[in-house]
Amino acid sequence: MTLSRLILGLLSLAPMTGYELKKHFDATVNHFWSADKAQIYRTLAALVKDGFCVAETVQQDGLPSKQVHRITEHGRAALLEWLETESSPDAERNAFLGRVFFAGQLDKEQLHKLFDRRRETARNYLASLQEQLAASPAANPGEALFFQLATLRNGIRHVKAELEWLADIEKELV
Amino acid sequence: MTLSRLILGLLSLAPMTGYELKKHFDATVNHFWSADKAQIYRTLAALVKDGFCVAETVQQDGLPSKQVHRITEHGRAALLEWLETESSPDAERNAFLGRVFFAGQLDKEQLHKLFDRRRETARNYLASLQEQLAASPAANPGEALFFQLATLRNGIRHVKAELEWLADIEKELV
DNA sequence: ATCTACTAGTGGACTTGTCAACTAGTAGAT
DNA sequence: ATCTACTAGTTGACAAGTCCACTAGTAGAT
Q1: Sequential DSSP letters for A64-97
Q2: Whole-angstrom distance, CA of residue B75 vs CA of residue B51
Q3: With bands split at pLDDT 50, 70 and 90, how would you rate the model's confidence at B9?
Q4: CATH of the domain at B16
Q5: CB of B10 closer than 8 Å to CB of B76
Q6: CA gap B22, B40 in Å, rounded
Q7: B62 pLDDT exceeds 90?
Q8: Second label for A133, Cα 20 to 30 Å away, from A106, A169, B35, B36?
Q9: What are the residues whose beta carbons fall under 8 Å from the beta carbon of B132, sequence distance 6 or more?
């Protein structure tokens, strides 16, 4: 459901191929929803079958032909309906916290490795999110770009929270 | 993988039935990993098949008979190995942020509904996590309970970050 | 000359997780 | 007397997502 609506959302901004959708996912959506390309192509086929978008094959010279997908009125309606419905909170899935939960069974060295690695990835991730944000033009509150950047800022807030938590825990563990 | 190791983790604390595992998941693991009971029973069967735990049927009077699962040495080794391996960061999956990403297409009323609902659920969730934490006895850094509570404190940090982010965004949107 | 990456997409196998129904006895509430 | 919840577990169908291999031409790098 979510993937199909996110695809409709991207198609509502511009007609696109599955290949381009994958690029957009990796570049701007990845921090809250990642998508496998096989999954994208299959979902796209389902959207066409449901009449939410239409595909047009475009021949190119020197490159493989491509299928440009365009959202339909029906598709726009489905997107809007989804935007307006309450999102049941996604189940948290955090394997790292699973390791922490049982970390009493680790020796000191492994314990510090666990937290150190987490801190490292969090720091790198924070840097990449901040770069993305800095690379974007400024947005006025309310316009489309503002909301897209808002999701980035959400990610940044959360990674910072993670780093603060790590600092707390590591301090207590001396 | 993760579910099977979390089950092994719980079994490493005490032998248990699938039914009890489900209770433990709902009570203490849910904030970072939720588990469906069908999934628990199937994973448990796989763990037995792999020799990571053994099942013993216990007859009860007045109640259905139950299968108590006990972790084996082999299972403890598998758990430890998992604890020591690096967790590849779980893909973020946040349908709410998906709605935010395209929220430029909503009218003012729907927009505020989107954020208001999120704030409400976040507040309630925060309260429930804090209650859980307050209801726990104090833990000394390094002991098993400390790490279990650390996962709760992680959740609290993150929900607070979410609320701060919401306040930022709502302020900017006037 | 070979290797890699990019463009554009397809197909199969597989894992993980979700939902709902079903069995069956006990105990408490209305 | 009926309804609901608890205990304990099983099964089937399905949805969603992942991984890998494959096609096939172009262009740049070593």
Answers
A1: --EEEEEE-HHHHHHHHHHHHSPPPPPPPB-HHH
A2: 7
A3: very high
A4: 1.10.10.10
A5: no
A6: 7
A7: no
A8: A169
A9: B152
Give the residue carrying structure tokens 């491509």. Answer: A66
User: In chain B, whose CA is at the least distance from the CA of A165?
Assistant: B154
If asked whether residues A164 and A100 sit together in one domain, one would say yes
Helix, strand, or coil (residue A5) = helix
Is residue A137 within 8 A of residue A115, CB to CB? The reply is no
Contacts of B168 in chain A (CB under 8 A): 153
CB-CB contact of A118 with B86 (8 Å): no
On whether residue A90 sits in a domain, the answer given is: no
The last residue of one of the domains, among A44, A62, A84, is A84
Kindly list the distances between the CA atom of residue B135 and the CA atoms of A133, B25, B149, in Å, as whole numbers in the listed order: 40, 17, 11
Nucleotide nearest to B91 (CA to C1'): D17
pLDDT of residue A89: 84
CA proximity to A173, closest of A68, A165, B68, A21: A165
Measured from the Cβ of residue A88, the count of other Cβ atoms closer than 10 Å reads 9
- Give chain B positions within 8 Å (CB) of A121: 89
Domain total for chain A?
2
- Band the pLDDT of B11: cuts 50, 70, 90: very high
Q: How far apart are CA A158 and CA B165, in angstroms?
A: 9
Parent domain of B79? 2-84
Which amino acid type is present at position B72? Answer: T
- Whole-angstrom CA distances from A128 to A24, A87, A124, A134, A156 are 16, 27, 6, 10, 10
- B64 and B104 co-located in one domain: no
DSSP codes of every residue in A122-170:
HHHHHHHHHHHHHHSPP--TTSHHHHHHHHHHHHHHHHHHHHHHHHHHH
Any atom of strand D under 7 A from CB of B18? yes
Stretches where chain A sits below pLDDT 70 are: none
Q: What pLDDT score was predicted for residue A68?
A: 98
